[in-house]
Backbone:
């Protein structure tokens, strides 16, 4: 209870802004968010922070979620282009258990990554983003300060596309037959995986999700990076959010070594 109160106090300004914004869309939507703020403050705050992030990019944001059947949280328009945004929150306690990182700023030792948890979130949200005629962006958010800085940093976002690289050496007759080189089995890649019928080929996964927003809302300013699906149902234009850097797989990723570029 004390922690929840601290969060509501810390994020009072963005909560008040979100409350005022929701008042324009009917009492039911406002009540649902107020109930969420009581039951799961972190999720409600992350929803408010995501709406603010989009609005700060001059995006027209309106609620979209069907109050009975769900769906993406927001429908967004900018420069005549439409996209949807679904928000999911990784709570401070859950992130601490996964990474073994303290939420309070301190020198970090060994820690685990959020890659598997992020992949699980993508899997669970993919059906919710299906059957739309415009891009759907999944905002994966957390108020965990340390993980927002370390686990959502550029190298970690790149690993979402390529999975973790390993140093590999070929052996023959009991000795090294090649110099060390990097390989990946794509085990934790979120958008590509080996084709079951042709392991040397790549197939795509979670195509209804056009892009990710990785949002560390636990610090000021927030740490936010993006990640583009290489072959989505509907491509998302990262230029619509110009203050956010987006990672994507460089051309030729299906035939050559995986390389990530930032735009």
Residues:
């Amino acid at each position: 209870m004390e922690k929840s109160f601290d969060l509501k106090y810390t994020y009072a300004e963005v909560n008040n802004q979100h409350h005022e914004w929701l008042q324009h869309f009917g009492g039911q939507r406002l009540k649902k968010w107020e109930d969420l703020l009581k039951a799961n403050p972190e999720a409600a705050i992350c929803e408010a922070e995501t709406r603010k992030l989009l609005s700060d990019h001059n995006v027209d944001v309106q609620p979209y979620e069907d109050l009975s059947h769900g769906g993406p949280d927001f429908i967004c328009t900018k420069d005549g282009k439409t996209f949807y945004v679904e928000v999911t929150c990784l709570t401070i306690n859950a992130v601490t258990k996964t990474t073994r990182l303290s939420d309070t700023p301190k020198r970090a030792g060994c820690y685990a990554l959020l890659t598997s948890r992020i992949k699980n979130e993508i899997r669970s949200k993919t059906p919710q983003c299906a059957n739309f005629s415009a891009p759907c962006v999944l905002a994966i958010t957390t108020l965990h300060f340390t993980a927002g800085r370390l686990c959502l940093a550029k190298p970690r976002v790149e690993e979402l596309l390529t999975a973790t690289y390993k140093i590999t050496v070929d052996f023959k007759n009991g000795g090294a037959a090649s110099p060390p080189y990097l390989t990946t089995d794509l085990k934790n890649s979120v958008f590509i995986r080996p084709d079951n019928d042709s392991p040397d080929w790549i197939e795509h996964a979670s195509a209804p999700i056009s892009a990710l927003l990785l949002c560390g809302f636990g610090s000021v300013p927030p740490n936010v990076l993006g990640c583009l699906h290489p072959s989505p149902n509907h491509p998302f234009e990262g230029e619509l959010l110009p203050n956010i850097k987006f990672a994507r797989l460089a051309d030729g990723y299906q035939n050559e070594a995986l390389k990530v570029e930032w735009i």
